[in-house]
Structures are given as C-alpha cells and as structure tokens.
Automatic annotation (TrEMBL):
Protein name: TetR family transcriptional regulator
Gly residues: bias regions: 205-214
Residue span of region Disordered: 194-214
Domain HTH tetR-type: 15-74
DNA-binding region: 37-56
One term of GO molecular function: DNA-binding transcription factor activity
Amino acid sequence: MGDPRAGRARRADAERNRRAIIEAANAVLAEQGSAVDVREIARRSGVGMGTLYRHFPTKDDLLRTVLEGEFTTWAGAAHRAADETDDPRRALREFFENALEYRARHRAVVEHCGSAWTAPAAPEPACTHLLTPVIDELRTRALAAGALRPDVTTEDLALLLAALGQVVQMTTDTCPRMWRRQLRICLDGLDPAHTEPLPRRSDGGDGACGGAGG
C-alpha cells in the first residue's frame, strides 16, 4: 500500500502548479493578448511544458479557464458596485466606465468578450450570461427613475458595451483614453430627452436578434 502522505503531497504539488500556471497565464494574457506563446506562460509559472499540458491539454483550455475565472470575479464586483450606487443614471455610467477600464487593462478579455456577437467559435468566457442580468437590472432601474430613454433595450446596452470594447482594442496602443470620449457620446444618446423613436431592429420583429434580450 502506498504512503497516503506521498499522495497528498503529490496532489498539493499539482494544485500549486495549476495555480501558478493560471496566475502566470492571467498576467501574460493581460499584457500580450491571447496570441501569446504558451512557452512564455510555462516559463513565468516555473513549470515545464509537460506539466502545463497535463493540466491544460490545449491552449484554448487554458485560455477559457483563465478568462472565465478572471471575468467571473470582475462581474461579481461590478454587480456589487451597481447595487451600492443609489443614482440609477450614475450606476449605469459607472458600470460602463468600469467595464471598459477593466477591458483596457486586459488584452485577452477585450479580444474575447465580444465574441458572443462577432466570433461564436472563439474560446469565450461567460461574458454574456454573467453581464446580461447586471445590464438588465441597471436598465430597469434607470427606466423607473426616468433616467433612460424608454425604447432602449438590454440588448442595445449589451451590444453598445461590445462595440465600445472594440474601440478599446483598436485604440489601446495609439490613443488609450479615446474610449472615454466615445462612451460619453453614446451615453448622451441614451438620455431620455431624445424623443425621436429608435430605428427598428433588422429582423423587423419584437424578439431579440441574439445574445441578450430586453
């Protein structure tokens, strides 16, 4: 019979290696984006390539694990912050600001968080289903307070966030604060003072085109 202490030690070593890989991958993906070579992740985590592949057989496995963990943590914090803000208009603005600031700090997140709308086959963290309830709650509160034009849907806001995420990605190296200007323009367009009806959806119906409802 094997020594149970040796088995526990091996499991503890394996868990430490897994945590080291995830921490290193998160840092590298934030800096360099998802095109990074996994050998760089192994080097930073202090493990060999064999150990990395035992835990994550493919790069997509590692990417999905890192992004889902990172985004789940951030989305929870965003939800709590929204709940703690009394002014519905400010809560909506700060949510967008915080979401885009977060994406600006993490290249891989901004590359993949819009994938529900632009690249369904990409390794995608749980961006859509985690954020949709937050966005819907913020929209409902703003509507009830008369702080949002009444024909704006949850889908509109989710797509707006995805589009501004692309602005972050396009301008992060050349003009890293440009997204703030674009956000202000968009938020001004959500003001209830605008009474001209929005154009209809392309499908001409009442259902969502995809991704988010509302």
